[in-house]
Amino acid sequence: MSRSLKKGPFVDVPLLEKIEVMNRGGEKKVIKTWSRRSTVVPEMVGHTIAVHNGKKFIPVYVTENMVGHKLGEFAPTRTFKGHTTKTEKAAAAAPAAPAGKS
């Protein structure tokens, strides 16, 4: 469910203040944030924001296409290692068996 238009997009206040200070000064440095729930607003375009994924900070360079999305969408929290098949499982188990016979 989306947020009311009357309220506007949610952006964590300290994060927005840091962005505004950098825009006024013309600075470009990485901003660390834990606020994955913050919405990307046009003021953030061109900045790099390090978004915490629960383990480490993922640097996210904000472009125009990201406006309206949440910061957490660009810092995945799970690593997908791929699907395994029966032949891959058998191949992984087969080398382990002869080594145990010695």
List the helices and strands and how they pair.
Blueprint lengths: L12 H13 L5 E3 L14 E5 L4 E5 L24 H8 L2 H6 L1
SSE-based structural type: alpha+beta
Mean pLDDT: 90
Low-confidence runs: none
* Rg, alpha carbons: 22 Å
| Strands ordered across the widest β-sheet | 1-2-3
% residues in beta strands: 5-15%
Number of helical segments? 3
Concise synopsis of the structure shown:
With 102 residues, the chain is of the alpha+beta class. The chain has helices spanning 13-25, 86-93, 96-101; strands at 31-33, 48-52, 57-61.
List keywords for this structure.
single chain, 102 residues, alpha+beta, three-stranded mixed β-sheet, 26% helix
Task: Describe this entry's structure for a reader.
The protein is an alpha+beta fold and 102 residues long. The protein has helices spanning 13-25, 86-93, 96-101; strands at 31-33, 48-52, 57-61. The protein has a 3-stranded mixed β-sheet, covered by helices on one side. The radius of gyration is 22 Å and the shape is elongated. The protein starts with 12 loop residues before the first helix and ends with a helix. The model has no long low-confidence stretch (mean pLDDT 90).
